[in-house]
Specification:
The chain is mainly α. It is built from five helices and no strands.
Length: about 80
């Protein structure tokens, strides 16, 4: 999927393409539509780098007890 913004829009919002990707990824993560790995892929970085990006935008990890249970299950399988 490609999303295109006209030069007029890019000039109006005064941010670069990478920042647009980051804002979209952070927003989708906060809405719990994607996880950290997927967020990293959107911005072209690792999951860890994506979590650092979250902090740059004043966001925190969306990690709750369900995520903990899933992580514990995954650990038991290894």
């Amino acid at each position: 999927m490609n999303i295109e913004f006209t030069d007029d829009v890019m000039n109006l919002i005064d941010i670069d393409e990478q920042q647009v990707k980051e804002i979209i990824a952070v927003s989708l993560y906060q809405l719990r539509k994607i996880n950290g790995v997927q967020g990293g892929k959107i911005i072209g970085k690792s999951e860890l780098e994506f979590h650092e990006t979250l902090g740059q935008y004043g966001q925190t990890l969306a990690y709750d007890t369900n995520d903990l249970v899933e992580d514990l299950k995954a650990l038991k399988k290894t």
